[in-house]
Specification:
Strand content: 15-25%
CATH superfamily: Response regulator
Helix content: 25-40%
Number of strands: 5
Length: 125
């Protein structure tokens, strides 16, 4: 069975638990990056889903551009086979290119997430 870890950091992130289960994917939801990183040490996921939130000159300025940078680096080191999927709010779309320059993102979906397109991304090898 495939595994998927979701990092839920905003109310926009849809609850796709039933959708993932219907696809035969064991999904775990995390509300903090710290807990997700601990889980990655124990079991490497096949997929990661997180929402891109641009830094807008706050703590992410400088080395990090978003909330996902540290998690994506952790995945690259500890679970390089994991396909990284990113959800974005339409207002963040102008900044996603900066993340794509840094990380091998498998797919990006703008809210509302189209489940058929998500299924296609989860099915790609």
């Amino acid at each position: 069975m495939k595994t998927l870890y979701s990092l839920i950091e905003s109310p926009f992130h849809p609850d796709l638990t039933a959708f993932y289960k219907a696809q035969g994917i064991a999904a775990e939801r995390f509300t903090t990056a710290r807990n997700l990183h601990r889980a990655i040490q124990k079991q490497k996921p096949d997929f990661f889903v997180g929402e891109f939130i641009y830094g807008w000159g706050n703590n992410y300025a400088g080395a990090n551009i978003s909330n996902l940078d540290v998690t994506l680096r952790t995945l690259q080191c500890q679970a390089p086979q994991a396909k990284m999927i990113v959800f974005i709010h339409p207002r963040e779309a102008d900044h996603i290119g900066k993340l794509l320059e840094l990380f091998p993102i498998h797919a990006v979906f703008t809210y509302p997430v189209n489940e058929q397109a998500l299924l296609a991304a989860l099915s790609e090898r």
